Each structure stands twice: as C-alpha cells, then as structure tokens.
Amino acid sequence: xxxxxxxxxxxxxxxxxxxxxxxxxxxxxxxxxxxxxxxxxxxxxxxxxxxxxxxxxxxxxxxxxxxxxxxxxxxxxxxxxxxxxxxxxxxxxxxxxxxxxxxxxxxxxxxxxxxxxxxxxxxxxxxxxxxxxxxxxxxxxxxxxxxxxxxxxxxxx
Length: 157
Prior knowledge:
Oligomer: single chain
Largest sheet: 4 strands, mixed
Signal peptide: 1-22
Low-confidence stretches: none
Keywords: Signal
Number of helices: 4
C-alpha cells in the first residue's frame, strides 16, 4: 500500500512541476496583421495559376476553403513579395541564391526549378522561402540582377 502512495505522490509531484514550468515560459508577442483593401478582391488568374501549380488537387481543401489562408496568401502575393532588379549592388554575393532554396513540393512532387528567370511565369510560392519570419529577407535569383524581397507583415499599432 505504501508503494502505491509513494508512486501516486511522485506522479503528482512530476505533473505539478511540469505544469509550473509550462506556465512560466516566456510568451511571444503576437500582433494582428493589418491587411490592405486589396486582399478583398478575388484571386487573379495568375495568382490562381501559381496556387494550382503548388497545391494541385489539395488547393480547395488546404487554401480556398480557409478564408484566413486565402487572406494571408493574397497579402503575401500582393503586398509582401517584391521582385526588383538591382544593378549597382557591390556585395551581392552575401545574399542567399534561389538555387540554394528547396522546392516547396509537399503537394506537387513534379515541381521543377525555373531554368531561367521570366517575370511573366515566375512563381515564388514554389520555393520554400521564409515568408513568415520577423523582418525582411532578400534572395538573389541566380545569374541575374534580380532579387526577391519579402517584406515583413505590417502590424497594427
């Protein structure tokens, strides 16, 4: 009988200390994203083409049926991803090359890297870029003077 009491007390002590630790962990600051009015418009044909290329038959289930996911992707494509040509940059070798980034091929195993950059057909969603990190990030498109700039999310103040 004393062994059962000892084990019950030990179990209770372990559970209490685990709960106490979880309650004292530092909370991360979370803020609401401020979306522009342009996220209210439907996806364009080009945006839907990009999404279809990446999500294939999972597009409806994983994106289109989820209003917040739709809003986040519109915000990303319309406000946060900028592709810019920069010709006078002296130290461009310090940026991560697009060829060093893995493809985001979870839903489409047939995704292929672009052989060359074409503004009309380039799909940034097919690369596993850091879309949701704190702050901006810049990637260099191999063999060009083009850079992908991912702006941070704009937060309400």
